[in-house]
Amino acid sequence: MIVGATSAIAYETAKLFAQDGAELFLVGRNAEKLATISQDLGVRGAKAATTYTLDMNELDRHQELFDAALDQLGGLDALLISHGTLGDQEVSQQSVADTLHEFSTNALSVISLLTIVANHMEAQKRGCIAVISSVAGDRGRQGNYVYGAAKSAVSTFLGGLRTRLAKSGVDVVTVKPGFVDTPMTAHIKKNFLFASPTKVGLDTYQAMKKGTEVLYTPWFWRYIMFIVKSVPEPIFKKMKI
User: Fold this and answer.
1) Looking at the DSSP assignment, which residues form a beta bridge with residue 2?
2) pTM of the shown model
């Protein structure tokens, strides 16, 4: 089951599972894009690639979504959550409604579905849950703290979930990409730190196969964020990042 299947990272990850002959259940907001991706994944070797159209902010439909996935797949071996938005920090600063909407999209909708899926996988005592979080959640920065706070909530939730489900044989993978060259970041000037969706998709696929706990992708972001988190607060407050 891939939620946010039209995102660039999810699509690249799905291609690799399709080559394995996996049966896929693709969730997204745009039915037309989902249909195109489904057809492509079928050509690439997917056993099936069923689509389901839903805005994940419709929290009251998450159980319906999950039930549909189980019915179509006959069970659930793995979940990848990759939906989200990179909102405008300045707009959020001036709008409570915008802030809460961004937090709902990037955190609450993820936590809602995770709660449902975690109970199922805990009962079946197997499975893999992977979520695309972000290095932005490692420390609040003035330039994107609404987005970062949402991702921090997701990463913390996943950490607790990982500990809880470990005894049941369920892997919980937190994926923390740095800058990725996707439509979401089209407005940002690119530099050498930007990775391709293909690279991040491959890393995500391999992490799900191995049951990696926390993946920084590309790898060097682990060390970049270690430095960022180590900067003393008085100095950090003066930095324009």
Assistant:
1) 26, 80
2) 0.93
